[in-house]
Amino acid sequence: MRYAVALMAGVLAAPALAADALPGPAAKIAAHAVAHPAEKVTVRVPRAARYVGGDRFTLYGVADCEIHVFAEADSQRRVRKLYWIQFENYLPSRPELGYDYAKGNTGITIGGMKVWVRARPVSTTGPVREGSDRAHVLAILKAGGYTVPPEVMNVRMVRMIDDPAGTGKGRHELMVIYSEDLAPTGKTAADLTKDGVPDERWTPLEEPLIDRASKAVTVQRR
Asked: Which of 109, 62, 74, 37 shows the shortest CA–CA distance to 184?
């Protein structure tokens, strides 16, 4: 699984897309659940969350990426909580590539499954990398008439679908990013970081945020 994080990418030119043509989204949306038949995974979000939209595309020319977005928002469609669900795997044409989430992430067990977690406060107002998964999520939200807060705190939770041993390595990932508006905490991202890295001031907020995220989103393997 990978707003667990990803809102700080700089602007870079996207590589040319691979020749691999992708069909439309494979997952089925029913009420507050996303069921992916090929990956045999169902992800559920709270009833208060509204489905905004989805997309499937070739990410940076190397990966099959499918995204589905749910949001809890006010009457003006200002997002208070965001649920970003992403299925991603490297294309067959790139057999040499693989993910390794054991580096730079914390491994915890959620619902009996090994999940790799990273949480942090971030600004959403920075430049967006062209062709990135974040760019696609923001486009989905914009098309739905939603706006995101200028600063959020989020948790990225990644489950490697083809990694039954829980090593954090593989080629098929399910990423769920759970995000909350940072403003209600009375803090800013600058209050909680040093040189862009979360410090000890972030610690009291981090564990409760991860706990809320792990309870808000459930993943079921079939």
From this structure: 74
Query: Does position 4 have pLDDT exceeding 80, yes or no?
Result: no
* Long-range contacts of residues 34-37, Cβ cutoff 8 Å, at least 24 apart: 34/68, 34/85, 36/66, 36/87
Q: Residue 21: pLDDT band by 50, 70, 90 thresholds? A: low
Count other C-beta atoms under 10 Å from residue 35's C-beta: 17
Express each pLDDT in 32-78 by its tens digit: 999 999 888 999 999 999 999 999 999 999 999 999 999 999 999 99
pTM summary value: 0.88
Q: Tell me the backbone φ, ψ of residue 189, rounded to 5 degrees.
A: -60, -35
Q: In DSSP terms, which residues pair with 173 in a beta bridge?
A: 88, 160
CA distance 220 to 222: 7
